Amino acid sequence: MFCRICGTKDTQFQISGKYGCEHCVTVFPVPKQPRRLWIPTSLLKEIEEIFTHSQSKIKFLSYRTRITRNLAHSLFPFYEPKETEVKQLLAENGYWENWEEESNSLTVSKEGVSPVYHLYLGSEDHVRLEILHILDLNYGQLQNTNKSLPTRVSKENRSLLRLFYRRKLWAYRKGIGFLSSCPTNLGKGRRDSLLLGIKEGVDPRFFSLFEKLSEFGIEIAPSTDHRRESLGNFRGLVVKISWKNAFAVQKRQFYKILGLRGSL
Ligand SMILES: [Zn+2]
Q: Model-level pTM?
């Protein structure tokens, strides 16, 4: 068994776990989307209680959204990184005008403006957009500053987001959604994550949340891939709460307990 477009064999797919092109999803197994359940009110209350109870022990460091896309009708980066084509597409749409020949990343936002919009090429998918909000707040502060958090997306960033959702440009299939190299990213091609800094003496129930939230597709795990920029001056255990392709209601529920607006 093999994909007649990109040539990936099933033995290769079993080892790499990656699709080679958009046709691969018709050849190799597409993972069943985990059932998305609503988070019950009792659990939401418990989370809120833990955060309130441990206010001084939990620091909200940063919030990041990653959206990945592959060019339509192209082989995926495993075979063809397509960096020139992606740069061209972005340039045609007003981004990447000043890109340097060798550079594979570009900060879209103006310096000092939050959130930071960043474009990356040359990884698992053809292009990745990252939106980073530096928070560096405890729970109480987060609740209070909620109203001053930027809730409106600037005109420029809005059009960049629109570009990422224009189905014709990207590998997309009806019934599945946006297609990515990694089978678990299929659909929205989006992962949201929140970095928390945990200090000693945190409410021990915090750690039991790891398991309770996993059945809703929300992962909590010690983070190793964070970058210095997200941490500010924090020293301690860094935990990442992340969820892939969550549906809107679920995300709103979760944002609410974190004191974040659903528009992020
Ligand atoms: Zn293929």
A: 0.87
CA of 6 from ligand 1 middle (Å) equals 4
Q: Does residue 264 form part of some domain?
A: no
97 shares a domain with 68: yes
How much is the pLDDT for 82?
93
Assess if residue 263 is contained within a domain: no
Q: Is 243 exposed, middle or buried (0-12, 13-18, 19+ CB in 10 A)?
A: buried
Span from the CA of 3 to the centroid of ligand 1 (angstroms): 5
CA 89 to ligand 1 centroid distance, Å: 23
From the CA of 30, how far away is ligand 1's center (Å)? 13
How confident is the model over 97-111, as pLDDT tens digits? 766 667 788 888 777
pLDDT in tens, 52-61: 899 889 988 8
